[in-house]
Amino acid sequence: MIDMIKQWRHVFKLDPDREITDEALDLICMSGTDAIMVGGSSGITYDNTVELMSRVRRYELPCVLEVSDLEAVVPGFDGYLIPMVLNATDSQWIIGQHQQAIERYGYLIPWDLLIAEGYIVLNADSTVARMTGADTELTTDAAVAYAQAAERLLNLPIVYMEYSGTFGDMELVGETHRQLTKAHLIYGGGIDSSEKAGQAAQVADTVVVGNVVYSDLNKALETVQAVKQSV
Description:
eight-stranded parallel beta barrel, 8 strands
Protein backbone atom coordinates (compact mmCIF):
# COMPACT_ATOMS: atom_id res chain seq x y z
CA MET A 1 0.00 0.00 0.00
CA ILE A 2 2.68 2.52 0.97
CA ASP A 3 4.67 1.62 -2.14
CA MET A 4 1.68 2.66 -4.25
CA ILE A 5 1.27 5.96 -2.39
CA LYS A 6 4.94 6.79 -2.80
CA GLN A 7 4.41 6.80 -6.57
CA TRP A 8 1.82 9.55 -6.33
CA ARG A 9 2.80 13.13 -7.11
CA HIS A 10 -0.66 14.69 -7.48
CA VAL A 11 -3.88 13.73 -5.71
CA PHE A 12 -7.35 15.27 -5.83
CA LYS A 13 -9.19 15.23 -2.50
CA LEU A 14 -12.97 15.07 -2.79
CA ASP A 15 -15.38 15.81 0.04
CA PRO A 16 -18.47 13.55 0.31
CA ASP A 17 -20.35 16.45 1.91
CA ARG A 18 -19.92 18.70 -1.16
CA GLU A 19 -21.70 18.36 -4.48
CA ILE A 20 -19.83 17.62 -7.69
CA THR A 21 -21.47 17.03 -11.07
CA ASP A 22 -20.82 13.95 -13.17
CA GLU A 23 -19.20 16.18 -15.80
CA ALA A 24 -16.80 17.72 -13.27
CA LEU A 25 -15.99 14.34 -11.76
CA ASP A 26 -15.21 12.96 -15.20
CA LEU A 27 -12.76 15.81 -15.87
CA ILE A 28 -11.11 15.29 -12.47
CA CYS A 29 -10.72 11.54 -12.86
CA MET A 30 -9.46 11.79 -16.45
CA SER A 31 -7.09 14.68 -15.71
CA GLY A 32 -3.94 12.61 -15.21
CA THR A 33 -4.00 12.86 -11.42
CA ASP A 34 -2.48 9.86 -9.67
CA ALA A 35 -5.30 9.12 -7.24
CA ILE A 36 -8.48 10.30 -5.58
CA MET A 37 -8.61 10.78 -1.82
CA VAL A 38 -12.05 10.90 -0.24
CA GLY A 39 -12.40 12.74 3.04
CA GLY A 40 -13.37 15.85 4.94
CA SER A 41 -13.59 17.33 8.41
CA SER A 42 -17.37 17.55 8.85
CA GLY A 43 -20.63 16.32 7.40
CA ILE A 44 -19.18 12.95 6.42
CA THR A 45 -21.67 10.09 6.54
CA TYR A 46 -21.73 6.47 5.43
CA ASP A 47 -24.29 7.25 2.74
CA ASN A 48 -22.53 10.20 1.12
CA THR A 49 -19.20 8.37 1.27
CA VAL A 50 -20.66 5.30 -0.45
CA GLU A 51 -22.27 7.50 -3.09
CA LEU A 52 -19.05 9.32 -3.93
CA MET A 53 -16.95 6.15 -3.91
CA SER A 54 -19.34 4.39 -6.29
CA ARG A 55 -19.06 7.28 -8.75
CA VAL A 56 -15.26 7.38 -8.60
CA ARG A 57 -15.08 3.61 -8.99
CA ARG A 58 -16.19 3.94 -12.60
CA TYR A 59 -12.66 5.09 -13.40
CA GLU A 60 -9.40 3.13 -13.36
CA LEU A 61 -7.86 5.29 -10.67
CA PRO A 62 -6.72 4.44 -7.14
CA CYS A 63 -9.21 5.67 -4.56
CA VAL A 64 -8.45 5.89 -0.85
CA LEU A 65 -10.50 6.99 2.14
CA GLU A 66 -9.03 9.30 4.74
CA VAL A 67 -10.88 8.24 7.85
CA SER A 68 -12.29 11.08 9.95
CA ASP A 69 -15.49 9.47 11.27
CA LEU A 70 -15.92 5.84 12.27
CA GLU A 71 -19.54 5.86 11.17
CA ALA A 72 -18.46 6.73 7.61
CA VAL A 73 -15.95 3.92 7.06
CA VAL A 74 -17.00 2.19 3.86
CA PRO A 75 -15.58 -1.08 2.46
CA GLY A 76 -14.32 -1.14 -1.09
CA PHE A 77 -11.59 1.50 -1.11
CA ASP A 78 -8.06 0.64 -2.25
CA GLY A 79 -6.72 1.85 1.06
CA TYR A 80 -7.54 3.70 4.27
CA LEU A 81 -5.45 6.58 5.59
CA ILE A 82 -5.59 6.98 9.36
CA PRO A 83 -4.63 10.47 10.61
CA MET A 84 -2.83 10.85 13.93
CA VAL A 85 -2.81 14.60 14.65
CA LEU A 86 0.57 14.94 16.30
CA ASN A 87 0.17 18.55 17.42
CA ALA A 88 -3.36 18.08 18.78
CA THR A 89 -3.82 19.18 22.39
CA ASP A 90 -6.59 16.60 22.80
CA SER A 91 -5.05 13.12 22.90
CA GLN A 92 -8.26 11.66 21.46
CA TRP A 93 -6.98 12.79 18.05
CA ILE A 94 -3.51 11.33 18.55
CA ILE A 95 -4.39 7.83 19.71
CA GLY A 96 -7.64 7.83 21.73
CA GLN A 97 -10.14 7.41 18.91
CA HIS A 98 -7.85 4.91 17.25
CA GLN A 99 -7.86 2.70 20.35
CA GLN A 100 -11.64 2.95 20.56
CA ALA A 101 -12.01 1.99 16.91
CA ILE A 102 -9.80 -1.07 17.30
CA GLU A 103 -11.60 -2.14 20.47
CA ARG A 104 -14.93 -1.85 18.70
CA TYR A 105 -14.12 -3.01 15.17
CA GLY A 106 -10.75 -4.77 15.41
CA TYR A 107 -12.03 -8.07 14.04
CA LEU A 108 -13.27 -6.30 10.89
CA ILE A 109 -10.23 -4.13 10.14
CA PRO A 110 -8.35 -4.94 6.88
CA TRP A 111 -4.96 -4.20 8.41
CA ASP A 112 -3.05 -4.63 5.16
CA LEU A 113 -5.01 -1.72 3.63
CA LEU A 114 -4.39 0.72 6.49
CA ILE A 115 -1.72 3.42 6.47
CA ALA A 116 -1.18 5.71 9.46
CA GLU A 117 -0.37 9.36 8.76
CA GLY A 118 1.45 11.68 11.13
CA TYR A 119 -0.66 14.81 10.68
CA ILE A 120 0.74 18.26 11.45
CA VAL A 121 -2.11 20.81 11.34
CA LEU A 122 -0.91 24.36 10.70
CA ASN A 123 -3.94 26.56 9.97
CA ALA A 124 -5.58 27.76 13.19
CA ASP A 125 -8.75 28.82 11.35
CA SER A 126 -9.42 25.40 9.84
CA THR A 127 -12.14 23.04 10.99
CA VAL A 128 -9.63 20.30 11.74
CA ALA A 129 -7.54 22.65 13.93
CA ARG A 130 -10.56 23.71 15.97
CA MET A 131 -11.82 20.14 16.25
CA THR A 132 -8.52 18.74 17.49
CA GLY A 133 -7.30 21.77 19.44
CA ALA A 134 -4.12 21.70 17.37
CA ASP A 135 -1.22 23.90 18.41
CA THR A 136 -0.70 25.57 15.04
CA GLU A 137 1.80 28.25 16.08
CA LEU A 138 4.82 26.10 15.29
CA THR A 139 8.31 27.28 14.43
CA THR A 140 10.17 25.47 11.69
CA ASP A 141 12.21 23.63 14.30
CA ALA A 142 9.05 22.52 16.10
CA ALA A 143 7.42 21.29 12.88
CA VAL A 144 10.58 19.38 11.96
CA ALA A 145 10.65 17.81 15.41
CA TYR A 146 7.06 16.61 15.06
CA ALA A 147 7.88 15.13 11.65
CA GLN A 148 10.99 13.39 12.95
CA ALA A 149 9.04 12.03 15.92
CA ALA A 150 6.53 10.60 13.45
CA GLU A 151 9.25 9.04 11.33
CA ARG A 152 11.81 7.90 13.89
CA LEU A 153 9.85 7.29 17.09
CA LEU A 154 6.49 6.17 15.75
CA ASN A 155 7.81 4.71 12.48
CA LEU A 156 4.96 6.28 10.51
CA PRO A 157 5.35 5.98 6.73
CA ILE A 158 3.59 9.30 5.98
CA VAL A 159 3.91 12.82 7.33
CA TYR A 160 1.02 15.02 6.21
CA MET A 161 1.43 18.79 6.51
CA GLU A 162 -2.10 20.19 6.50
CA TYR A 163 -2.76 23.90 6.00
CA SER A 164 -6.41 23.20 5.12
CA GLY A 165 -7.76 26.20 3.21
CA THR A 166 -4.71 28.44 3.21
CA PHE A 167 -1.42 28.24 1.32
CA GLY A 168 1.35 27.28 3.68
CA ASP A 169 4.89 28.31 4.47
CA MET A 170 6.88 26.58 1.74
CA GLU A 171 10.19 27.19 3.51
CA LEU A 172 8.89 25.39 6.61
CA VAL A 173 7.53 22.53 4.49
CA GLY A 174 10.75 22.30 2.51
CA GLU A 175 12.95 22.19 5.60
CA THR A 176 10.72 19.51 7.11
CA HIS A 177 11.05 17.47 3.92
CA ARG A 178 14.83 17.80 3.93
CA GLN A 179 15.03 16.46 7.48
CA LEU A 180 13.08 13.30 6.71
CA THR A 181 14.95 10.21 5.58
CA LYS A 182 12.21 7.58 5.13
CA ALA A 183 8.75 9.08 5.61
CA HIS A 184 6.77 10.26 2.59
CA LEU A 185 5.77 13.94 2.91
CA ILE A 186 2.32 14.95 1.74
CA TYR A 187 1.30 18.62 1.52
CA GLY A 188 -2.27 19.89 1.44
CA GLY A 189 -3.79 23.35 1.72
CA GLY A 190 -4.63 26.43 -0.31
CA ILE A 191 -3.51 25.23 -3.71
CA ASP A 192 -5.74 27.24 -6.04
CA SER A 193 -3.42 27.81 -9.00
CA SER A 194 -0.81 26.05 -11.09
CA GLU A 195 1.85 28.35 -9.63
CA LYS A 196 1.12 27.31 -6.06
CA ALA A 197 0.89 23.68 -7.12
CA GLY A 198 4.34 23.90 -8.65
CA GLN A 199 5.79 25.53 -5.54
CA ALA A 200 4.35 22.83 -3.30
CA ALA A 201 5.58 20.08 -5.61
CA GLN A 202 9.14 21.32 -5.18
CA VAL A 203 9.07 20.80 -1.41
CA ALA A 204 6.78 17.78 -0.95
CA ASP A 205 6.57 14.24 -2.29
CA THR A 206 2.82 14.38 -2.92
CA VAL A 207 0.57 17.41 -3.41
CA VAL A 208 -3.11 17.21 -2.49
CA VAL A 209 -5.55 19.58 -4.21
CA GLY A 210 -9.04 19.94 -2.74
CA ASN A 211 -11.11 23.10 -2.29
CA VAL A 212 -10.36 24.62 -5.70
CA VAL A 213 -12.14 21.67 -7.32
CA TYR A 214 -15.38 23.20 -6.06
CA SER A 215 -14.57 26.88 -6.65
CA ASP A 216 -12.70 26.87 -9.99
CA LEU A 217 -12.54 23.54 -11.78
CA ASN A 218 -10.31 24.79 -14.61
CA LYS A 219 -7.68 26.00 -12.17
CA ALA A 220 -7.91 22.70 -10.34
CA LEU A 221 -7.24 20.79 -13.55
CA GLU A 222 -4.23 22.99 -14.33
CA THR A 223 -2.55 21.88 -11.11
CA VAL A 224 -2.03 18.34 -12.43
CA GLN A 225 0.55 19.22 -15.06
CA ALA A 226 2.10 21.88 -12.84
CA VAL A 227 2.89 19.20 -10.27
CA LYS A 228 3.94 16.56 -12.77
CA GLN A 229 6.33 18.95 -14.53
CA SER A 230 7.92 20.17 -11.31
CA VAL A 231 11.23 18.64 -10.28
